[in-house]
Design brief:
The protein has 14 helices and five strands. 39% of the residues are buried.
C-alpha cells in the first residue's frame, strides 16, 4: 500500500468547504478532488436528480470504483478530497479498511446559515441532503472504530482565522504549513465545471472572506425570510441542530494557533 497520505474533509453542503478546498489546492503539493463520492449518490444510486450538476464522462460512479481510484491516485502523490458524509454513510462505515487508511476531518457550520444558503439554490433539497445527521453518524462510527475522535473544525472559525484553523488540519496530518496557500490566483479548477452553479462566490474570490457581525445578522435574517416561503426549513433545522451541537462539542479540541 502506498505511503502517501490521503486526507478527507467531510462536510455538509454550504459549509465553506469549497473555500477550504481552494486553500488545499493552493498548497500545490497535493492531488485534490472535488466531491468524488457525489457520483455514487446521484449518478450510480440515483438517490435524487441534483440541480446544477453536469456529469463528467469517464468519472467512476460506484462507491468501490471511486474508492479504488482515490487509492490509486495516492500511489503517485498525497491526495486531498472534500466530500459529504451523506453520500457514503453507511457504506463507508462498513468499509473499515478505507476509513482507517485515510485521515478524516469534519467541517461544520451553523445549520441555520447552511440551510438558508442551500434553499436559495435548491428549494427542493431533501432533509438527508442537509447532511449534518450523516456527518454525526460518520464521526461517531469513526470514533468507535479508532477509539479517537476525528478532528472537527467550525466554518465560523475558518473564516475568522483561516491560518489557525486550517493549520490545525495540516498539523494533525503532518502537512507542512504553507503561508502562500491562503491567497490564490484567478480561474477555477477544471473539475469545478461539473457543479459550477453551486460555487459562484468562491470561484470569484482570491481568499477566504472574513466573517463579520453583519454577516451573522444577514444569515439570521435570510433564514427567517426564506422560512416564511419554505416551511421545510424549520423542520430541517429542528432535525439537524442536535447533530450539529454534538459535533460542535468536539470542535474546540482541534484548534491550533499559527502565525
Amino acid at each position: 500500500m502506498s505511503a502517501h497520505p490521503i486526507v478527507a474533509l467531510w462536510s455538509h453542503p454550504r459549509s465553506t468547504s469549497t473555500a477550504f478546498e481552494r486553500v488545499m489546492r493552493a498548497r500545490g503539493d497535493m492531488d485534490c478532488l472535488h466531491e468524488p463520492f457525489m457520483y455514487d449518490y446521484y449518478v450510480h444510486r440515483k438517490c435524487r436528480v441534483m440541480p446544477h450538476f453536469e456529469v463528467q464522462e469517464g468519472h467512476p460512479v460506484a462507491y468501490e470504483a471511486i474508492r479504488d481510484s482515490i487509492l490509486g491516485r495516492a500511489e503517485a502523490r498525497p491526495v486531498f478530497f472534500k466530500d459529504m458524509s451523506y453520500y457514503v454513510v453507511p457504506r463507508i462505515v462498513e468499509d473499515e479498511a478505507f476509513s482507517c487508511r485515510i485521515g478524516n476531518c469534519f467541517l461544520i457550520r451553523d445549520p441555520q446559515a447552511a440551510i438558508a444558503s442551500y434553499f436559495k439554490l435548491d428549494p427542493d433539497v431533501t432533509c438527508e441532503e442537509i447532511g449534518i445527521e450523516a456527518q454525526w453518524r460518520h464521526f461517531d462510527a469513526l470514533r468507535a472504530t479508532t477509539g479517537k475522535a476525528p478532528l472537527v473544525l467550525r466554518s465560523e472559525d475558518v473564516r475568522r482565522d483561516p491560518r489557525g484553523t486550517i493549520g490545525a488540519l495540516w498539523a494533525a496530518f503532518g502537512l507542512d504549513f504553507v503561508p502562500g496557500a491562503f491567497e490564490w490566483d484567478g480561474g477555477t479548477p477544471a473539475d469545478w465545471a461539473q457543479v459550477e452553479g453551486w460555487h459562484g462566490d468562491v470561484a470569484a474570490s482570491r481568499s477566504i472572506r472574513p466573517l463579520t457581525e453583519a454577516d451573522l445578522l444577514a444569515q439570521a435574517r435570510d433564514f427567517r425570510d426564506l422560512a416564511e416561503r419554505h416551511p421545510n426549513m424549520r423542520r430541517y433545522l429542528d432535525h439537524h441542530r442536535p447533530f450539529h451541537e454534538r459535533l460542535q462539542a468536539f470542535a474546540s479540541q482541534g484548534r491550533t494557533a499559527f502565525s
